[in-house]
Write a structure and sequence with these properties.
The structure is a single chain. By secondary structure, this protein is of the alpha+beta class. It has five helices and eight strands, in the order βαααββββββαβα. A four-stranded antiparallel β-sheet has the order 1-2-3-4. The longest helix has 26 residues.
């Protein structure tokens, strides 16, 4: 038995109320999550530099190669552990979009569900990569506060004071962002919402938005 066996519907804490339906479910690509959230490439580069420095020291001082071997070994273990964490995080995550809310079921050891009513979402951003995966940050409108520690790694980087939940490292991110934007707009018909047509995005560029006049 796993911690998710008692879910009446995968990724949701309970049965859907009358009139609510699931429009999309997804999860992070664990390889992309490892690179972006757990910075595996940066860690590899760091230990490669340390190993090169240890090797240069060994060759110039004749102290042996034990330091090189220890550095390479520690680097390999660190990278493997980060990939394991990324895999576990991705496998324990389910993003759900319904016609009324977005639910983030996250957490490896202590699973939790974060419910985001669509009326709370002020804008939808998109950062897409060349392979089609990407991140979809959700800007919260109104006074609602979410903790960075409760969200990470499903949070927009560097937004510490006002954390933004994010659908992270998801495949076909452009289509998902457009669907989320359309669904949010449908829930805010009096909010003077405008949707920018989606076009191929580069990493970090803004995608479909509807930030103006959203009712809280």
């Amino acid at each position: 038995m796993t911690e998710y066996d008692d879910e009446p519907i995968r990724g949701l804490p309970g049965m859907l109320p009358a009139g609510e339906e699931i429009l999309w479910q997804g999860a992070p690509d664990w390889r992309v999550l490892a690179r972006t959230a757990f910075s595996t490439r940066l860690v590899i580069a760091y230990f490669a530099a340390l190993s090169a420095w240890a090797l240069a020291s060994a060759l110039t001082t004749n102290v042996g190669f034990l330091g090189v071997e220890m550095t390479v070994g520690l680097g390999a273990v660190s990278v493997v552990l980060l990939h394991v964490l990324a895999y576990a995080s991705a496998k324990s995550t389910v993003y759900t979009l319904t016609n009324r809310r977005i639910v983030l079921r996250v957490g490896i050891a202590v699973p939790k569900c974060i419910n985001l009513p669509l009326r709370m979402i002020g804008s939808v951003d998109l950062a897409q990569r060349a392979d089609g995966t990407g991140d979809v940050p959700l800007v919260i409108a109104g006074p609602a506060k979410l903790g960075m520690m409760a969200l990470w790694p499903h949070a927009r980087p560097w937004k510490i004071v006002t954390p933004q939940p994010m659908l992270r490292a998801i495949p076909d991110a452009q289509a998902v962002a457009a669907l989320v934007a359309r669904t949010c707009a449908a829930q805010n018909p009096e909010g003077r919402i405008t949707i920018t047509p989606t076009v191929p995005q580069g990493a970090g560029q803004r995608g479909p938005t509807f930030a103006e006049g959203v009712a809280a």
